[in-house]
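**Protein record**
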Amino acid sequence: MYHFFSKSVSNRLTKAPAGFGKAAATVAIGVLLATAGIPSRAWAQASPYKDQGEIDVATAAQNEKDLQKKLDKLKEWEQKYPDSQLKSARVLMQAGALHDLAMGAYGKTSPAELLDSAQKAGQQLADNMDNYFSAANKPAQMDDKGWAGAKSSYDLQTHSVLGWIAYTKKQNPVAEAEFKKVLALDPQAAQVSYWLGSVIIRQGDVKRYSEALYSIARAVTVTGPEALPAANKTAGEEYLKKAYVGYHGDDSGLDQLKAATAAGPIAPADFHIKSVTEIEEEKYKDQAAYCEAHKDVCLWRQIRTSLTGDAAYFDQVKETQIPPDAIGMFKAKVVSITDKDIVVNVDNAGGDATLKFGKTVNAKVVNVGDSIEFKGEVASFNKDPYMLSLTIDAPTESVKGLPDNAFTGPAAAKKAAPKKTAPKAAPKKK
C-alpha cells in the first residue's frame, strides 16, 4: 500500500500555486478603503476628525507601511478615539492589514516567525469576519451584493492561507478543517482537494484512507480554470493509481471512484473503499482460517495489540527477532525512504514499521510500493500513530525483495544473533 507523500509527486503537487482559485480574483482591500471615505489631512477642517490629535494618529496609521506597526497604530487610534466618526473605516483598515499580513505567508514554508505571525493575523481576521463585514461597516458607495462578495472573497482567502500555514506546520487536524472550509466556498479548488487528501493520510488513521483517496481523485478530475496544471495532473493520475492499487489490491473500481467525486468536494459520510486486507479477510470464513493463511499479519497484529495495551510488554520484546523462524518473514510494501531507514506497510497503508539498516539506502533503486519481506530485532515503538522500529543488521539475509545495490557505502558489521526468543502476547488482564 502506498504512502501519499512519495517525493516525486509531493514535490510537484504540494507547492502553493501562483493563485488560489476564486480567491485570486477578489476585491482588494484598497478598493474598500477607497470607498470608505477616510479624509485626508489636507481638508481636515471639513472632516469628521475630533481634533488635531486624531488627525495625527489616523494619518500615522494610514501611512505606516510595516503591517504589524500599522495594526499597532490602528489600535492606538481606537484606544484614544473609541467613538470616532471614522470607526467603520478604521475597522476596514484593520481588516486589510490583518489580511495582508496573513497573505504574506501564502506559499512560503519559512521562516517560522513569518508563519506564526501570519497565522495569528489570519485567525484574528477569521474570528472577527462577521464584525469586520457587518452592515454597519459597509461603505456607502458599495451595494449589498458587492459587500457580500467582498466578505466571501476574504473568507476564501483567509481560510486558504490558514490551511496552507497549518499544512506547512504539520498541524494536520487544523489544516483539514481549514481546507474543508475553503472547499465549501470554492468546490472546484483542485489543489486544495489534493492537500486535503494529504493531511488526512498524514494523520495515520487507515480507516480514513477512503476519504483521502476520494480527495486525491477529486483533485485530478476537476476541470476548468481551477484544475491542476497539466504536468501536475499527469503526475497526480499516476500517483492516484499507485495509491489506489496499493490500498485496494488492484485498479478495479478506480474509474467509479473518479466518477463518484462529481457528487462534491468532500467524501460522503458513508463512503468506503475496501482495502486489500478487508478483501482478503472476506475470503475466509473465520479469523482462525485467515490467520492460518496469513500468519505474519496476525502475529504483527498480536504484537501491536500487546504493545499498545501494555507498555511493560515492550521490555519483553526489545531486541527480540521477529517473526520467529516458524513464520519466516513479514510481507510488506515500501512506503518511504529516508537516509538509512525504510518505512514499510505491514498492516497500515500509512506505514507501521521502520526498518533501520545502519547504512545509506539507495533511493534511486528502492521505490515506494516495492514488495519486500523482512525480519529484524525490535528496537523501539511509538504508540500513536503506531510505528514499530526494527534493526536490520544483515540485509542480504533478513530482507528479500531489495535490489543488490540497495545500499551505498560499506556494509554495517553484523551483530550476533539475538538471544531472546520470539515474544508471546501480553497476558489478558482479568
